[in-house]
Amino acid sequence: MNSHAYLRLISTAVCAVALAACDSHAPTPTPEPAAAEGAPSGTPSADEATAAAAEATAAQAPTAPAPSDGGAAAALVPPEDCATPRPTVVHDAPTPGEPSGCEPHEIGGKGPLWALRDVQPQSCGAGAIYGLDAFHGHVTVVALLSATCGYCLAQAQKLEEMAATFEAMGQDVEFAIVNHAPTAEQAGALLERVSFPVFQDVAEVDAWGLLDGAKDDFFVYDTEGHLFSFLRASPDLDTNLSTPTGFVTLKNQVLAALGLPKEDTPPPTVLSGQNGQGQNGQGQGAEGQGGDGQGGQGQ
Fold first, then answer.
1. In what order do the strands lie in the sheet with 285-288?
2. Which of 227, 242, 258, 259 has the fewest C-beta atoms lying within 10 Å of its C-beta?
3. Cβ contacts of residue 140 below 8 Å, gap of 6+?
4. Angstrom distance (rounded) from CA 66 to CA 71
5. Does residue 139 fall inside a structural domain?
6. pLDDT bucket at 274, cuts 50 / 70 / 90
7. Higher-confidence residue: 285 or 125?
8. Domain-embedded: residue 25
9. Could you list the residue range(s) of the whole structural domain that residue 115 is in?
10. What's the total number of domains in the chain?
11. Residue 21 falls within a domain, yes or no?
12. Strand pairing of 173-179 and 139-145?
């Protein structure tokens, strides 16, 4: 063997020994732990990422507001034993209707032809949108009340008592409340106190405005739908139904509309907060064919 061959053999042996030493010191790779059953993998798939983004967007989306016209009442089903008039003409949405051509307080004039949703579950028109045309053939009392007003709730309870009084007398008289539009969400406070129709006013109709009305006003209509009497509280006219005088004041207007004799009016009862300021702050007294004369101006 010549010297050159011998040197190549020695070099090859040295390299082999060096490589073996490097392999013995190299770190052993650690195996990844197996994912637990049902646990998510470290990197979500494209489908999983898309689904998570959709869920996050839905959670941040604003909730739609509840219908302002008592729309939830549309699903109501009138009870089989309901005793109020059944509306023959119903509408798809609340509407102010056609102008009647009369001033809202004009005695003998037709009332505004508005149509609102009846939110009273006990009514024969429960959930339907209709108006005072359903009461044709009946003497009808309409009260403008607000569900957030304690005085109004007391008035509603007394109206229910008056309705029962006329029913016991065998007289055909209907009652209805138009709740103030801003208090739609609290209408249940009125529904708990009466069994007759409660119409929910809405800004698009503004039945209170069409009636040129104010809180605690009473409208008495004859059997043909003409305004027989309009009552608004004043210092000279007690319409607080919780007092004997106020109760008989309204009852006498209804009796007159029925063609029946009035009852004797008890002496006025003075209550704190009564006479205009404690009720609606306005006063025109009673107007009507059976009225007790014009009242003075409220404070």
1. 129-130, 116-118, 198-200, 173-179, 139-145, 218-221, 227-232, 285-288
2. 259
3. 132, 173, 174, 175, 176, 220, 221, 225
4. 8
5. yes
6. very low
7. 125
8. no
9. 78-288
10. 1
11. no
12. parallel
Decide if 271 contacts 238 (C-beta within 8 A): no
Q: Does 23 or 151 have the greater pLDDT score?
A: 151
Chain segment 191-200, per-residue pLDDT in tens: 999 999 999 9
CATH of the domain at 186: 3.40.30.10
For the question of whether the overall pTM of this predicted structure is more than 0.90, the answer is: no
142 inside domain? yes
| Range ranked top by mean pLDDT from 93-97, 124-128, 141-145, 294-298 | 141-145
List of E strands, 54-153: 116-118, 129-130, 139-145
Tokens of 48: 């999983």
In three-state form (DSSP H/G/I as H, E/B as E, the rest C), the secondary structure along the chain is CCHHHHHHHHHHHHHHHHHHHHHHHCCCCCCCCCCCCCCCCCCCCHHHHHHHHHHHHHHHCCCCCCCCCCHHHHHCCCCCCCCCCCCCCCCCCCECCCCCCCCCCCCCCECCCCEEEECCCCCCCCCCEECHHHHCCCEEEEEEECCCCHHHHHHHHHHHHHHHHHHHCCCCEEEEEEECHHHHHHCHHHHCCCCCCEEECCCCCCHHHHCCCCCCCEEEECCCCEEEEEEECECCECCCCCCHHHHHHHHHHHHHHCCCCCCCCCCCCCCCCCCCCCCCCCCCEEEECCCCCECCCCC
